[in-house]
Amino acid sequence: MENISFSIFPNDNFLDLRLYQYGWEQCAPLHSFGPFVRNHYLFHYILSGKGVLHSDDGDGVTHHYHLGAGQGFLICPGQVNTYSADEKAPWKYTWVEFDGLRAAEYLEAAGLSVNQPVYAPREPQLGDRVGEKLLYIADHADASPLHLIGQLCLFLDQLISSSATQREVRGGQLRDFYIQEAVCYIKQNYPYPITVEEIANACKLNRSYFSKLFKEIIGSTPQEFLINLRLSEAAEQMKTTSASIGDIAVRCGYPNQLHFSQAFKKRYGLPPREWRKANQRVKSNPMKKT
Prior knowledge:
Blueprint: E1 3-8, E2 18-26, E3 32-37, E4 41-48, E5 50-56, E6 62-68, E7 72-75, E8 80-85, E9 92-99, H1 103-109, E10 118-119, H2 124-138, H3 145-162, H4 174-189, H5 196-202, H6 207-218, H7 222-240, H8 245-251, H9 257-268, H10 272-279
Antiparallel strand pairs: 1-2, 2-9, 3-8, 4-7, 4-9, 5-6, 5-8, 7-10
Helix pairs in contact: 2-3
């Protein structure tokens, strides 16, 4: 028997930490997910039962981890993975997908990475609290975005403090300031046709080095981050205003509405007009063309 609770976070206007989706699932025997590649960090905590994680280490080598209740596993952006439930004791887990400026730093502090994806608590009761934090998020999908981001912070704090692989991470590195400067530049200029080279120049960095640094810290390329920011802002405007989709597209850096519609559908799974009908919080003006 399989039961699942799944929610998508309704707001993308957070940079240090960004929440994408969360939930819990009681898997059926041998239920499998993958091979799949995520764009963001995805952490599972196993509440009961057991299963197997097949995880690529980034160098083409696949590692196999047999996991059970009280453990967790991390999937990193761009990493190929498959995970499946045990035949006789299928696992029940709760999960959260997130990203942001500080995400890699916090996971590093917990000792988790592509090469070390398995979470184990120093003491069983500490792991139970990690699961409780994730279940709280999963069961409060109607809470405000700020409240859920706060709960994500509490989860990460518990993850770090309880992890058997906890590490001390140096803060305030110069490269972090470069990336913060880049993010500020993108936020201020995303409506315009800016390029990665312009962003790198604004930070006084070589484009190649800048792109590598940005991907390491943020978890996505500068271009991917720019596209996600534009689409997130467009989605927010479609939910909360009655402006036409064409006007919103231009405001968010898409003068070509066809290109906007293609990019929006690729990310959200629906064309802009259909997505708006399902998510809009204000009534449309019948005189407006959408």
